[in-house]
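Try this one yourself first.
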């Protein structure tokens, strides 16, 4: 009796890697592959993806529109946390992977699959993000990672292109046009090819969702973002749903070259990598949120939250979304956002989103206190005593230091 083929759910984008991995899994091990494509706002990339998946060996292709869930359950918590990895990366790829992997597990349960698979390389961060999510949500599922399989010989993008041509698999990449890109509603990333040399400047044709700064309009544009408890809900005074809000800001910000970041980052697996990111709408929202927090958070909460943001960013980058600590941090963050309500105006010009005004009914900014003019609300004599007490440890240390120096000088004499 022939053993029944094992069903595996593959995270399938239709890009170069997963386009060749799907037939390779069937050809090498006889797996029954269920392709799963997540609609996360990647434009027309999913056009014809079902037909392509079935034509290259999948027994089924599941496509799910996850944009609303992506925004509300992943992007909004991340914005509220203030998470930015290594000062510049707004975590566009990182934050999407746990959602895709979660849906793979759900589909595996629904389809009776015993395994889940991904096309992430053995050098990158995505392998960790996928596999940690699989482990957290169903440790019984077998994890198949072809790039770490000794029988997998397509260990370069050039080799993958050759395989695709041999098997007549339609792909956009060629050996000349071979950037590794990941796009969703939040951003698009670019890696590989000439970008592997940090000395090489990104060329204008690289950019996809934003204009090169040199070609941005000479006239500035203003946008107003309205927040309720840390969540952006209005654009220029009108209530807008999360997906539409980000799409619109991507268009506006992209026109002005906002949100382009070129950085060498520290991967979790230990090496440095160079990436160029376009995050126009995300940059506008993050900048506006930071500004509103400066107006509505007290000093101690704000400073402690900055420390939390660093940890939160690491956890997102490392793929630890389904982790008890992340959930606990969300509880803290949500508490800090209770008064983060108001409106922020930003000026978009030549690649920058700069603060042009903000207001909030929860504002802790008091003009009478901030003014240089002394008034009844602030007694400068209070500052005199405060400085004495606050500086007392430094004063004592200074006294001791002077005594030691004097003793040393006398000993020399």
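Now uncover the answer:
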């Amino acid at each position: 009796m022939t053993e029944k083929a094992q069903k595996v759910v593959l995270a399938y984008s239709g890009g170069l890697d997963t386009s060749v991995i799907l037939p390779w899994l069937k050809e090498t091990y006889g797996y029954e592959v269920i392709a799963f494509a997540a609609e996360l706002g990647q434009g027309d990339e999913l056009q014809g993806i079902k037909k392509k998946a079935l034509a290259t060996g999948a027994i089924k292709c599941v496509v799910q529109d996850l944009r609303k869930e992506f925004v509300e359950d992943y992007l909004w918590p991340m914005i509220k946390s203030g998470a930015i990895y290594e000062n510049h990366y707004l975590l566009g790829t990182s934050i999407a992977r746990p959602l895709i992997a979660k849906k793979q597990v759900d589909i595996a349960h629904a389809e009776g699959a015993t395994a889940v698979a991904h096309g992430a390389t053995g050098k990158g961060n995505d392998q960790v993000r996928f596999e940690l999510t699989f482990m957290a949500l169903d440790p019984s599922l077998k994890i198949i990672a072809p790039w770490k399989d000794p029988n997998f010989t397509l260990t370069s993008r050039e080799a993958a292109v050759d395989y695709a041509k041999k098997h007549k698999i339609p792909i956009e990449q060629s050996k000349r046009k071979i950037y590794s890109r990941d796009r969703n509603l939040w951003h698009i990333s670019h890696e590989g090819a000439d970008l592997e040399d940090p000395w090489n400047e990104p060329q204008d044709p690289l950019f996809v969702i934003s204009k090169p700064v040199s070609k941005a309009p000479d006239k500035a544009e203003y946008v107003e973002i309205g927040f309720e408890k840390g969540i952006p809900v209005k654009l220029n005074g009108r209530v807008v749903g999360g997906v539409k809000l980000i799409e619109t800001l991507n268009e506006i910000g992209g026109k002005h070259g906002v949100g382009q970041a070129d950085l060498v980052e520290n991967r979790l697996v230990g090496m440095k990598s160079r990436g160029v990111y376009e995050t126009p709408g995300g940059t506008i929202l993050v900048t506006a949120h930071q500004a509103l927090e400066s107006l509505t958070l007290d000093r101690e909460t704000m400073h402690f939250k900055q420390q939390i943001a660093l940890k939160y960013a690491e956890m997102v980058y490392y793929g630890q979304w389904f982790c008890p600590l992340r959930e606990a941090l969300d509880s803290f963050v949500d508490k800090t956002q209770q008064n983060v309500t108001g409106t922020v105006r930003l000026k978009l010009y030549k690649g920058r989103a700069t603060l042009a005004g903000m207001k909030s009914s929860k504002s802790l900014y008091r003009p009478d206190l901030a003014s240089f003019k002394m008034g009844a609300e602030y007694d400068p004599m209070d500052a005199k005593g405060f400085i004495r007490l606050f500086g007392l440890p430094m004063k004592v240390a200074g006294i001791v230091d002077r005594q030691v120096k004097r003793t040393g000088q006398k000993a020399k004499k």
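Discussion: The longest helix spans residues 392-412. The chain has a mean pLDDT of 93.
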